[in-house]
Design goal:
Arc Repressor Mutant, subunit A; two-stranded antiparallel ribbon; 2 strands
Length: about 90
């Protein structure tokens, strides 16, 4: 992984504390993003068609007050999936 090659020892996020063990932190975030992508695809397979429907299903355990922000994340995920040609034919959001 590039983290080891670069010799990174900490991550300095835009907010929150300094994070030690950058490889483990980045592996966690990559796995979390992959899991969210799978959840978005599962929501679509279950019949959700709007950003609001997908967010309600995928982020059900998250405070609904944060759902408007989650819509931005889902929009980016849909654009990513569309760019890879993995959304169902004719799917629009």
């Amino acid at each position: 992984m590039l983290v080891e090659e670069a010799g990174l020892q900490v991550l300095l996020p835009g907010h929150g504390p300094m994070l030690a063990e950058p490889a483990a932190v980045l592996d966690f975030y990559l796995a979390h993003r992959a899991e969210r992508l799978e959840e978005v695809l599962a929501a679509i397979a279950a019949g959700d068609r709007t950003l609001a429907e997908i967010v309600q299903r995928v982020y059900a355990a998250v405070d609904p007050g944060l759902w408007p922000f989650a819509q931005w994340s889902v929009r980016a995920q849909l654009e990513y999936l569309a760019g890879r040609g993995v959304l169902p034919a004719g799917f629009t959001w």
